[in-house]
Design a protein that fits this description.
The chain is an alpha/beta fold. It is built from 4 helices and 9 strands; from the N terminus they run ββαβαβαββαβββ. The strands form 2 sheets. Strands 5-4-3-6-7-9-8 form a 7-stranded mixed β-sheet, with helices on one face. A two-stranded antiparallel ribbon has the order 1-2. The longest helix is centred in the middle third of the chain and has 14 residues. The protein is globular and about 40 Å long. The N terminus is likely disordered.
């Protein structure tokens, strides 16, 4: 029998039979970012109209939606299909479906190389695992902002506190 960690037991009333529905293994728990911190992250990155923005582990889409409201073309990526559904609903309510896209996928397999700005609210271990991909695939000058967690020995260009939260900014260096 498949591990309950990998599957959620869902009972459907159709015929009264239990059905196993696969759910993804999540590397990071969903914790919403306060809007003041979202705004601080986007301010620190200097997000502006025309920027190409990616939010990895986008949750309910609030960072990507806020970037789109500033005129950026934004893409949010999350492994959890429930979060993607919620993010799409939130984008519809915010009126930014023409500037934001949400993709269910694994951020380690996702191509975010066109980013001008990359935002993250992941765990330290995930940031460290992601760092080589960021440094290899993003163009020099890309701004990377992380809420709460750093990138190990890659020292940030700037660190700020917003509403009790620590936010880090890096600029991808020349190769």
């Amino acid at each position: 029998m498949k591990s309950l960690k990998n599957y959620l037991l869902v009972f459907l009333l159709l015929g009264g039979l239990p059905v196993l529905a696969q759910t993804p293994d999540l590397d990071v728990p969903y914790v919403p970012t306060r809007q003041s911190v979202v705004d601080g992250m986007l301010d620190l990155a200097g997000v502006k109209a025309g920027d190409i923005h990616y939010d990895l582990g986008c949750g309910d889409g609030r960072i990507a939606i806020s970037a789109a409201k500033r005129g950026a073309i934004s893409t949010g990526v999350d492994l959890d299909p429930r979060r993607i559904e919620e993010a799409n609903e939130n984008a519809e309510k915010a009126g930014v479906t023409d500037k934001v896209t949400f993709v269910q996928g694994d951020l380690f397999d996702f191509d975010f190389s066109k980013a001008d700005v990359l935002t993250l609210y992941l765990l330290p271990s995930v940031n460290l695992k992601l760092r080589p991909k960021i440094l290899k695939e993003l163009k020099p000058g890309t701004r990377v902002v992380s809420h709460a967690f750093d990138m190990g020995d890659w020292k940030p260009d700037k660190t700020v506190k917003i509403d009790g939260a620590t936010i880090y900014l890096w600029t991808v260096p020349k190769r």
